[in-house]
Amino acid sequence: ENLLEKDPLATLSVVSGYKTESDAMKALSAAYNPLYNYPGYDGYSIYDMVTDNALKGGEGPSDGSYFNDIANFTISSTNTVALQVWKNSYLGIFRTHLVLENVPGIEMDETAKSRIIAEARFLRAYYYFTLVTLFGDVPLIKTSVVKVPEVVRDPKAAVYDFIVEDFTAAIAVLPARSALPAAENGRITKGAAQAYLGKVYLYKSDFVNAEKWFKAVIDSKEYRLADDYASLFTLAGEFGPENIFEINHVYSAQYLVARNLGSIRQGSAGMYGYGFCNPSQDLVDEFEAGDPRLWQTVYKQGDKMPDGKTADVGNSETGYMSKKAYLLAPDFPPTGDPIHSARNEIKLRYGMLLLWYAEAANENGNSTAAVSSLNEVRRRARQGKSGVLPDVAAAGQEQLRNAIYHEQRVEYALENHRFFDLVRQGRAGKVLRAYAEKYKTVKGKNFREGINEVLPIPQSEIDDSQKRLSQNNGY
Amino acid sequence: LLAVAFMGIVNAREARTQELMDRRVSISARQEKIKSVFLKMEKQIGVKFLYSSNVVDPYRLVTLEADKMPLSGVLEQLLRPLQLTYEVSDRHIIINRIFIPLLERPSLPADRNASAVKSLRAITGRVKDETGQGLPGVSVLVKGTQRGTITDVNGSFSIATDEERDVLVFSFVGYLTEELAVDRDGTVELTMKVDNKSLKEVIVVGYGVQSKRNVTSSIASVSSEEIANQPVQQVGQALQGKVAGVQVVQNSGSPGASLTVRVRGAGTINNSDPLYVIDGNLGASPASVDPGQIETIEILKSASAAAIYGAQGANGVVIITTKKGRSGKPSIQLNAYTGFQKVHRMLSVVNARQYAELYNTALVNGGKEPLFKNVETLGAGTDWQREIYRSAPISNIELSAGGGGERGTFYVSGGYFSQDGIVLKSDYKRISFRINSEYRLAPKVRIGENISFASGKRNQIPEFGGRDIIPNSWYMDPTVPVKNDDGSWGFPRFSDTKNPVAQAFYNNNTAGEHLLNGSGYLVADFLDYFSFRTQLNLNIGYKKRIAYTPVFDVFPLQRNLINTLENTTEQSLNWDWQNTLNYQRDFGDHSLEVLAGITALNSRVESYYAQGQNLPPNADFDKNLRYMDLATSGFSARGGAGEYGMLSYLGRVNYDYKDRYLLTANLRVDGSSRFGRNNRYGTFPSVSAGWRISDEAFFKGITFLDDLKLRAGWGMLGNQNFPAYYAFANTLTPNLVYAFGSAISQGQAATSVGNPDLKWESIRETEFGLDFSAFRKKLSVSAAYYIKNTSNMLLRAPVPAFTGIQNAPFVNGGSLQNRGVELIATYSDRTQQGFSYEISGNISKNVNKVTGLANNQSMIFSETYSIASVGAPLGSFYGYVMDGIFQNQNEVDAHAYQAGGTGPGDIRFKDLNGDKVINQDDRAVIGSPWPNFNYGLSVNLSWKKFDLSSLFYGVSGSDIVANWKYFTQGSNFYNFDSEMLRAWNGEGSSNRLPRLNVNDPNNNFRASSYFVEKGDYLRLRNLQVGYAVLDGKGGSGCKLRVYLSCQNLFTITGYNGFDPEIGNPDPAAFRIGVDDGYYPQPRVITLGVNVGL
C-alpha cells in the first residue's frame, strides 16, 4: 500500500510552511518578489514612450509591437504587456495575503512580526495602486482564497480607500529609513509609505491630503536631494539620501532573477542594449538652455560618456538614447554582461516628491511652499553652474502650475511618470494631439479622452472569469 | 534470423522456408525413438515437427548420423527409408507418407466398375475442401495397415479392402486429420476441415500471445523484415508510413532527436505518446533498442486491445519483441551500413544585393532614408545556409549471435551507431548491447532474462527556438561576411540576428544517457492447462548534460564574458513486478483462455544541477578542463525528485466457438499514487467480439475468399500521464527571491493549489472492423472505424489571474473526440518466372475535435497560434483572416478600420463580426495541423538475386503556420525570403504579398491566415536496392547481401518552408505545426551489407 502513498518529494507542503520567524521572512520575500517582474512596464519606461517624451525605438519598427500598440493607442485587450502587469500585480497581492493570513499565527518576536505585516500591507497597496492607475476599476481581492464567481470589478474609489487604509496602517508601524541597517536596505520604510500615500492622494486630486503627506516626508528630514543628479542613476547612488523607494537589484549567479533588465532594454544596440525608448526632440527642446540635466538625461551619437566610452545610439529613431538607463562600465556585473545588472530601479525619490508637493501646495493656494519647493529642485539641478535655471519667482497659480509641470517633465523625464502626470492633470489629450500636429506623426494622434487614460482589461481575464469582468469603455 | 537480412522484405515466408532447410544439424542417434530424434532437431534449430501417429509411429527406432548437415539432407536421410516425406509451413515441418499405392493409381470413374470386378473389393469416394472443390493429394490410409492411396486431381480415390468394415484415415497438410468408418463397397464423400491450429500465426498482445487469426481488436504487426536496414537510430522512425492509424513525426532531423508518435490521433491535451513495452518491460526505453535487434513490433491501437494496460494504455501501446536464440547450430549475423547525409532543401532567401534593394524600398515606403548606398557593389554576399550545413557521415554496425541446446537458448547482440548532423556541432553516437536467454530448469519450468544496455552521447545545438542557429541562417544579413578580414566574426549592423556560424562554433552542449533495461522471468506450466509467469523488470537510467559556454564577444548581443559550466544529471529507477496466471483449455469446439494477474510498479527520478564560472581560460579549448573543480565563482546548485507508484490487477478471457465466434474481454484495475485517496483507483474494462462469417454455410459459395472476419469492440482506458506528480497536494514553491542589502533572501509561497479530487482521465472507444484475405491469401485487407472519446481530461483549467494563482491547478476538465477510419491492403504474388512482388498500401483518416473544456472555457491558447477550443481540433490555428491586399486608398476607406496607418499594399483582414472595426473579435480558426489523411505505400520486388523495396509516406490536408515569415517578410532588418521580390508595389501587382514598409503601420504581421500554408507532402521515405552475392547454398552456407539505401530521396510539397514535417518540441503541449525553423530531415544515402553464417 505504501506504493500508492507518496509524500511529495522536494516540495514543501503549505501546512508546514508557516512555523518560524524565518518562514515569515520567506513569505514576505515572496511578496516582494513580483517587484522584479514588471519588465514590460517599468523596464522600458513605457509611460514615457506613450507620451511626447520618447519614441518606442527597438531593433526596428515591429520589434516589441505590443509597445507600439500602447504607444500609438491602438492597444487591444490581448496586449501582452497589459496582461503581464495585471497578472504580476495580482500575484503580488496574493502573496501579501499569504503573509497577512499566516504570519500572525506564528510564534515569534512581536516587533518583527508587526513590521513584516506592515510591509505586506505596503506592498498590497503598492500593487493595487499600480492596478488602479493602469486599469481604473479592478476586482478588489482581500483574501488569498478567492471565490471566483463572486468577483466583479470594484469601483476605483473603493480600491483607493483600501489602498489608503493599507498605507496608513503601514506608516504607523514601519521604521524610519535612518533606523535601517545597511543589510536591510531595500526593505520598506515609513517614509516610503508616507510618500506613496501622498502620491495616492495626488492621483486622486486630493491635494490637501497630498500636501499633508508629502509635507510629513519633508518634515521627517530623512531625505534630501543628492548633490550629484547623474549619480542617482548609478550603482554608487543606490540607497542614496534622495531615494525613498527603490527596487533592490543585486547580482547573484544563482538567482539571476534579482537582476535589473531595465537598463539594457533602454541601452542602444551599440552599447549592449535593446534600443527601446528613444528620447524625443520635443523632450530635448523642453530643457531650458544650459540645464545640466539635459545631457544627464539623454545622450547622442559620439558623446563622451562618463566612463570614457564613446556613445553609439545605434538605430535610435531620434538620435537620442536615455542616459538615465545607461550602465556605466564600472557598474557592469561580474559577468561583464549588462543583462545581469545589479543597479536598482528608483521608483520614488525626493526630487519627484518635492515637485509633487509643489503641485499640491499650489493647487491648495499655498504658493510660497510651492515656489520654495520648486526652487529647491532647480537649485540642485544647476549643480553649481551659474547663469542657468534661475529661481522661479512667486507668480499666479496658473503660471506657477505651468512652471511646475515643466519642471516635472524635465526633472524626472524617462522615469516612467510622464503619462500618469498628463492624465491626472487632465491634459493628456491636449498635449499628445499637439505633439502629433507639430511633428506630423501618428504618435499621440489617436488618444481619445475617456478611453485611453486606462488600459483595456486583459481579454483572457474577462474570458477566464466567464465574462463577469466588464471591459473598459471604448475597448 | 538469417532470413531477415538476406531476403530483404520480399517473400519472407519463402525465404524463411529456404533458410530453414539450410540450417545445419548435427545429430547422432543409435536405435532411438524417432520421436526423440524429432525433439532433438526441434531444439537445435527451432522448428516444430507435426505428424500424425497414423503416419509415423513415434516409437519407431531409427539410426541417424549427421554432422553439420543441412536440414534438408538430414530429413531426406531420415525419412526416405521410412517412405515418409515432408512439407514446410512456417516453422512447422509436417511429416507425411510417400504413397506407393497398393493398387494401381485410381482409375477414372468410368473404369470404376472394372476395378471393382477385380478380386479385391474397393471403397471409393471423393474428398473436398471447405469450398466444395475436390481436394487432390489427400492421403487415405486404412487404419492399422500400411495400405493407402492418395486422391486424384478431382479429389477422388479408390482403395482396396477385404474387410467388412474399414476405418479410413484422411490426412492432408493444413487440414485436420479425419477418421471415417466405411462399409465395404461403400462410397465416401468427405469435406475436410482446415486445421487452424497448424496455421496459427501468433501475435504478441499484452501479457501473452494470441492467434493473429482470431484477434478481435485492432493490432498492427510489423515484422523485422519490414524495417530492416533502414538508416534510422530508433525503431519508431522506421514505422513511419507503415501502419494505418499510427502517425509518426520526427521532431527534428538532428541526430538523436525524439519522435512524436500518435496512435489514432492525439487523445489528450497532455502527453499523447504511446506506451512502449519491450519484452514485457513497461519502463524500457525504445531509444535503447537497436532496430536490428527487433523481431516484431505490435501496436495495440484500439482501446479493446490496449485495455489490458489500463491506465497506461490510453495513447496506444507499442509492444516490441526482441530476437531470441533458437536451438541448434549457433548463427552469426552481421549487419552494417555506412553512408552520408545532406540537406535536401534550402529556404530560398535573397542575396546581398537584393536584400539591400528590398530594404531600401521598405525604408522609403516607411518615410525614411535609404540605408544602402552602393547596392550594385554588394553582389551575392554570404549564403548563410551554406555556411552551417555540411555533408555528414552516418554508420551502423550490429553483430549478433544466437543459438541454443537441449536446455537453453541465447541471443547476444552488440551495435554501434554513429551519426553526424548535417548542421555543425551536432552528432549522436550510441553503443548498445543486448543479451536474451532462456533456460529450462525442469521440463515444465523455464527461466530467462532480457537485458539491454545502451549508452548514447549527443552533441546538441539549440533548436526549436525562433532565434536558434537554423532560423538565424535565414534571417542573417547577407551583406555580412562569416568572418571579417581581421579574423573577427561578422555581425549585423542593423539587426539583432546572431551570427549563426559563431553560434554553432561556441556551442558545447553534450547530453549523455546510459540506460540499463533488465528483466528476469520464470514460467511454470502445471496441471496441463495452467501456466504461471512472474517477471521482474528493472530499469536504470542515468542522464547527464554538460553545457560549457566559453568567453566570446561577437557583438553586444552575442557575447559571453565569463565562461560558464553547467552540469545536470538525472537518475531514474523504476521497477515493475508482474505475476500472471494463464489457463488454456479446449472443450470440443469451445476454446477458452483465462488470464489473471497482479502488477506493481514504482518509478522514481532525481536530478541535480550545478553551475560554476570562471574556469581557466584554456577550458575554452580543452575539454579536459571543463570540470566543476576548476570553477572559481558563480556557483549555484539545484536539485529535485519525483516518485509515483502503481498497483494493478488485470484479467482477460478469450473464448471462441469453432474458431468462428470469438470473444475477448479485459479488465484492469489500476491504483496510482498520483491521485488523492478518494480517487486513487480506476477500473478499465473492455470487450471485443469477432465473427468469422466466412465459415458460415451461406458463404461456402464464394470461392475466392479465404477468410472474412467481422469484429467490434468497446474499451475504456485511463491516463495519468500529466506533468505533475503531486497535483493533489498544496505545496510551496521555493526560491521566490528578493534582495535585502546585498544578500538574496529566499522566499517561498504557494504558486498553485492542489486538487485532492483529481481522478483518472478516461478514454472510451468503440470500434468496428473487418479483416479478410482472398485469392489464396494473395490479397489481405483490414479496415476499422473507431470513435474515441476522452473525458475528464487532466488539464490546467485557466483561473483568472486576479486569484493570484500562477499555475492553474489541474482539474478533470475537458473532453476530446477522435473519430477515424483505417484501411490497409496488401497484395503479393510470385510469377512463374520467379518475380515476386508485394504492394501494400495504408490510409487513415482521423478527425480530432475538442468537445468540452473546464469552467465553460471557450479557448485555451498555447502561445500565439495554437488553441484548444470547443468544436475545433486540438491545436487549431487561430488568428485574423486575410482577405487579399488593399490595392488602392478607396479600398482602404471602404473597409473596416484596421489601424491608424493602413494604406494600399497592406493586408485586408475580414471584418467577421461586421462591426467596421478589425479587432480581436475578428479572429477565427484559420487552420488545423492535423492531416485529413495519412498514407503509406510500400512496393517490394525481388527477382533472382535482386531485391528492391520502397516506402512512400504522405499526409494530406494539414496546415502549417510558416512562422518564420514573421522575420523574413517583416521588414525588420532580417534577410528576406525570395517571395518578397514580388511584394506589392503598386495597384494590381500582388493580391497575396503585402508592401514592404519598415513601419508596418497596418500590423500586417499579426497572427493571421497570411502565415498559414498547406502542409501536404509525399515523401519517398526509403528506397533500397539489394543484391544477394551469396545465397547460402553450396558448401559454405554463407550468406552475403549488399544493398544501397536512400532515405528521403525526394519530397513533393507545395509548402514554401524548409520541411513540411514539422516537429513538436514538447510532446506535452499542443503547439503543433507551427514552423519556427526546425532541424530538417537529411537525405541519407547508405551502402550496407548483411552477412550470415
Describe the structure.
The complex is a heterodimer of chains A (475) and B (1093). By secondary structure, chain A is mainly alpha-helical. In chain A, α1 runs antiparallel to α4 (80-102) and α12 runs antiparallel to α14. The model of chain A has no long low-confidence stretch (mean pLDDT 92). Chain A has helices at residues 21-32, 46-49, 65-71, 80-102, 110-135, 156-173, 190-203, 207-220, 262-266, 281-286, 294-297, 350-363, 367-382, 397-411, 418-424, 428-439, 459-464, and strands at residues 12-13, 54-57, 243-247, 276-279, 298-300, 320-322, 345-349. The relative contact order of chain A is 0.13. In chain A, 43% of the residues lie in helices and 5% in strands. The longest helix of chain B is centred in the first third of the chain and has 14 residues, at 352-365. Chain B has 15 helices and 60 strands. Helices cover 9% and strands 47% of the residues of chain B. The N and C termini of chain B lie close together (11 Å). In chain B, the strands form 15 sheets. Chain B has a 22-stranded antiparallel β-barrel. In chain B, strands 8-7-10-11 form a four-stranded antiparallel sheet, with no helix packed on it. Chain B has a four-stranded mixed sheet with strand order 15-19-20-18. The radius of gyration of chain B is 34 Å and the shape is elongated. Among the domains of chain B are: 2-90, no CATH class; 117-198, Carboxypeptidase-like, regulatory domain (Immunoglobulin-like, Sandwich), CATH 2.60.40.1120; 207-328 and 1086-1092, Ferric Hydroxamate Uptake Protein, Chain A, domain 1 (Beta Complex). At the A-B interface, β1, α1, α3, α4 and α17 of A face β31, β32, β37, β38 and β39 of B. β1 of chain A pairs antiparallel with β36 (731-733) of chain B, so a sheet runs across the interface.
